[in-house]
Amino acid sequence: VLCQYPAGSPCISLTEPYFGAVGKIEKNLGYGNLIILLNQVVKKDIVSDILGLCNGYSKSPEEMYSNYISIKQLARKLGVSLPSLSKISSTVIISAKKPGQKKEDAARYNIGLNLKNNNQGVHIPHHVFYLDSSKDWMLSPEVAGYLKEYTQLFPGVFTALEEQAKNLENEVIHAQKVFPDAPDPEVPIKALLSWILALPISHLPFIPCGSKLIVPALQEKISSKLKTVKDTQQELFQVPNSIRNIFLETYPYWIRPFGVKSYYEYQVGDRVINIKTCGMGFVPFGCPGTIVGIFDTKIMVEFDMPLITGSTYWGQCSKYCGKIVPSYAVLNISMKRRAAQKGAQMQAKYGGHEFGPYRVPPMIPHNPYFPPRMRPVSYTHLTLPTNREVQIQVVAVPLKK
């Protein structure tokens, strides 16, 4: 134990009231007892304050994006067909064939807005998202304005797309049908491309459908709240602890302290702490951060300090502070507080006596990383020894394990 937990080793506390506090081992007393030096800034309940900010934005997509318009409604409003508007919002290939030039040698351009891609299941953040309840794409007011301006400036593109759909032609439209009066079709095409590239949404990347990104207004409030904590003076204090209640930095062989946490168990705005240094791109051990994005299998974290390999991610994070990491590489210190708040709300709702049709039994201690569980209401379960076969008779139904 003295060799595995030497004095000066960085560690993270896994017990209350200092859950998630970062410090170092001050002295090893032997027999599994330690004196650790923690940062006093964790005593300020910043996690609960941020959860209070996030509760105001924890709404359904219909409520969060009530001012968005569906692509079907926008097509009826603009007087164009839905397939044409859907193609313009995605990808449209136009061929600029010059006189005397072979068809396969003609230059091709993409004149779509590239807001989404149905085949790949991706879209740009904040402006476009797929609503599962209505099975429709929802567009922001800015995107709706860009599509309306597109129909007014370049109506020949929609005419060519509708004619293409009627004649069941291939996916490539010809520039002569869009700009019949232009001697050189590449000139108006380049003007159209210049207009598209000048739009603010033209440089946004794609994210998978179903991803979650933090609302910019909420991110500003969290940043201002964290700034007040950074300005306070950080003091150190000694706390007696046990080796079972702390997590040490391990390198190069890393073992997670808990089971793998899936990405859907996280929420944007959660406070996390990095617990993995190997393969993380020089993210310091114990570096705190805020979840600003949730993707298929990973999460985007805006750490509180700039990183060597940090990124802004198209303006989603502060300068050099953003990093996309696996969900199991960070310790979520907001999950336990969120579970405690939810438990207190349920206790207040049912008067502390009943939880639906059942009585609420007292809480029992549990792993500090997971929410506390209640005692089972029904004691019909059995814990069996391993490597044995037991015949059980329950209501005349044989169950063999």
Q: Helix segment count?
A: 10
Global structural class: alpha+beta
Summarize the amount of helix as a percent range: 25-40%
Average pLDDT works out at 76
In the predicted model, the low-confidence regions spanning at least 5 consecutive residues are 353-370, 375-381
How would you describe the shape?
elongated
Main beta sheet: 6 strands, antiparallel
Distance between the termini: 39 Å
Give the strand content.
15-25%
The total count of strands amounts to: 24
Report Rg: 29 Å
Structure description:
The chain has 401 residues and is of the alpha+beta class. It is built from 10 helices and 24 strands. The protein is 25% helix and 24% strand. Strand 23 (391-394) and strand 24 form a beta hairpin.
Question: What descriptors fit this protein?
Answer:
401 residues; alpha+beta; six-stranded antiparallel β-sheet; 25% helix
Q: Helix and strand layout, with pairings?
A:
Elements: E1 10-13, E2 22-30, E3 33-39, H1 46-55, H2 61-64, E4 69-70, H3 71-78, H4 82-88, E5 93-96, E6 107-110, E7 116-117, E8 122-123, E9 128-131, E10 136-139, H5 141-153, H6 155-167, E11 172-174, H7 175-178, H8 186-197, E12 207-208, E13 212-213, H9 216-231, E14 236-242, E15 246-248, E16 271-274, E17 288-294, E18 298-303, E19 322-326, E20 330-332, H10 335-349, E21 354-355, E22 358-359, E23 391-394, E24 397-400
Parallel strand pairs: 5-11
Antiparallel strand pairs: 1-2, 1-15, 2-3, 3-14, 4-10, 5-6, 7-8, 8-12, 9-10, 13-17, 16-17, 16-20, 17-18, 18-19, 21-22, 23-24
Helix pairs in contact: 1-9, 4-6, 5-6
